[in-house]
Please model this.
Amino acid sequence: MNIRTLVLCDDLWHPGAIARRGLKALGDCGFDFEFLKNNADWPVLDWRKFQLVVLAKSNVVSAKKKRAWLTKDSEKVFCDHIRRGTGLVVIHSGTADYAELPVMRGVIGGAFLRHPPQCPVTIEPKPRRPLTKSVTPFMVQDEHYFMKLDDARAKIFLQSRSEHGVQPAGWTRIEGKGRVCVLTPGHNVEVWLHPMFQTLLLNALRWAAKID
Model:
């Protein structure tokens, strides 16, 4: 039976279609993706249906609705789902605009700070990490995310390198009974469709869903 996976996507700078194309390109991978582009009604979802959540959007309801979908009054509700055992994979803009939400920032393990203009970025897997199985270094045109990694115990499995410096680009952490995996590349659809990033995506999904 495939794993039902909720995908939260779509903001002003990151159309939901990018996440959809990137995840659908995985083919018959053992996950059934259900895409939610408008987060206005997220609290009333039946979370028991989902073993895994992919967060690929900044903290806005949608590309057309700029108000926050997650607030200091509601972040605990979302984070409690993760702590009870729902896996979470955070991709690119899923790290953005949550810095002032301490509970959510704690679950992610850090926060997006800034990025220079798009440039060539080399993605470098750390050896002998389960999340980098079958992944070799590769270069993409991307927004090079600069991050503040708060959790000193987070396990970094990926770094990104450009003319602007070196940054952590992938890490995992445990939140209660839930597994959290963060990938910071992914602004352009070409990144999502790159064979090595596809492998990273599948590794991340499987790890967060406790398959591996």
